[in-house]
Amino acid sequence: MKRPPWAVLALALVLVGGSLTVVSRPSPEGPRYITDDQGRAIILHGFNTAGSTKSDPDAMPWIEEQDVENEYERMGTNFVRFLLQWSALEPEPGQYDEKYLDAVAERVSWYAERDYHVLLDMHQDLWGQGITEAGRVGNGAPEWATHTDGLTVEEQEQWELVYLEPGTMRSFDHFWNTTGEHSELMSHYVRAWRHVADRFSGEPAVIGYDLMNEPWGGTLQGPEFERGPLAELYRRSITAIRTVDNDSWIFVEPQAVGVNWGLPSALPHLDDPREGKARIVYAPHIYPLPMDLGKAYGRGEHGGGDDGRIGGSESSRVWIDRSISLWRRNVLVTADRLEAPIVLGEFGLDTSSPGAMEYVERMLALTDEIGAGRAYWSNDLDGWGPWLGRADGEEGEGAKPGPLAEVMNRPYPRAIAGEPLAVHYDEPAKTLTVSFAEKNDGSVTGPTEIYVPEREFPEGGIISSSDPEGSWAAEWDAARRVWKVESAPYLQEHELVVSPTN
Ligand code: 9MR
Questions:
Q1: What pLDDT, on the 0 to 100 scale, is given for residue 313?
Q2: Ligand 1 centroid distance, CA of 336 (Å)
Q3: Where do the Glycoside hydrolase family 5 C-terminal domain residues begin and end (predicted)?
Q4: Which of 87, 124, 125, 156 has most ligand 1 atoms within 8 Å of its beta carbon, as the pocket-test mutant?
Q5: What is the Å distance from ligand 1's center to 54 Cα?
Q6: Distance of CA 427 to the CA centre of its chain
Q7: Given the CA of residue 213, which atom of ligand 1 is nearest to it?
Q8: ipTM of model
Q9: What's the pTM?
């Protein structure tokens, strides 16, 4: 593969960025967690659903209700980052398509019935379909909100490069009002969010709103963009959403370029005017630069990727690991500044590339370690997702699981009845350890819930607690494959261990 010129620039940025990053310091309060309506800390584990939304005439993902059922059966997930399209929501300025929202609500109900948490993500790539006449690239913004001023947009083999096309840049510059000509666009976006929040505020399965997918600043980049118009969009959206929805969590992303590779974000602290403690979530993505350049996570000299070399004789895995370390450090710094819990909104790759499943395991372990939730990109039937395709295309038969389905199907605490201290899954031993502290403030009303897969835990496996015998109780819900655990409330700390039957 020929390396695109901006990738070379980017590589240089990584080197410079690495030396500029703020040294990580432990958070004064430790990691923060999202809580559910029973006051439990929830660990979000699931998929983005779905990329197919972008090109669907009704802007719906490919799934049917049976596919949600299949996902639970195969992987026991509890989270979906569900893609929305502003173009479908507000097809004409100020007019919202309620039928579109009905269709979203129907899908939300499929998840709700299976105890999932749904994050509504206002997705965009390359601004919107209207950046080209053919409409083959770009999704998100409606055509009426797309002003290229006649500047060109050429399609590129590597889709991200289209961000640099003049017409795309101009469309973003108008939205961020860098041009001073279209301040109405941001107002529309904010009102559209308020409309969505108004519609879903009473639906407990909707955990929150991801204000904008992978923001791109056009001609404004880095701190100037993140502290400027991006923060303004977030502040205005948060204020608007809170007029109709006091309880949902509001997810904010950093600028994607650079930060997805591990560089620092300059996103500032955002106030939350809700009654009660702030509910802002930091939701970055990770796509290590070597992977954007076509490198794989394999162990070979070049990571089993293409024949280009990165870093002399080092394998690309070394470079990917460096990106991951950089990402981890910088994400913690930003989350600390935002005083927000972390959810990794996207990570993903071609599941057939060398070392792909080791990369996924690594990201699952890392998110456990930093107390973050995660949504894999994506559940599409495109070689990145958990399904190898529809089984014979027969209705009701569902999709065939591939290697990713195995890796994602692992023990995890769906909900923790207290303040999580550590979550650790030992892959070779197939043993999950969850430790947490009592809250002592009466805010937690439900039990701890731990999901375990069928294969190594046919009847739930063996569960033990550090609480003295007789002071705690575990109940096995065989249908959902979930342990429900009541711990001894008079103890300050608890450790639960679930291990395979033999
Ligand atoms: O995987 C998606 C690819 O098929 C599309 O061509 C591209 C442009 O819409 O988007 C890809 O998905 C991206 C997602 O929308 C945002 N984060 C990065 C994802 C992978 O590149």
A1: 52
A2: 28
A3: 410-479
A4: 125
A5: 9
A6: 23
A7: 16
A8: 0.99
A9: 0.93
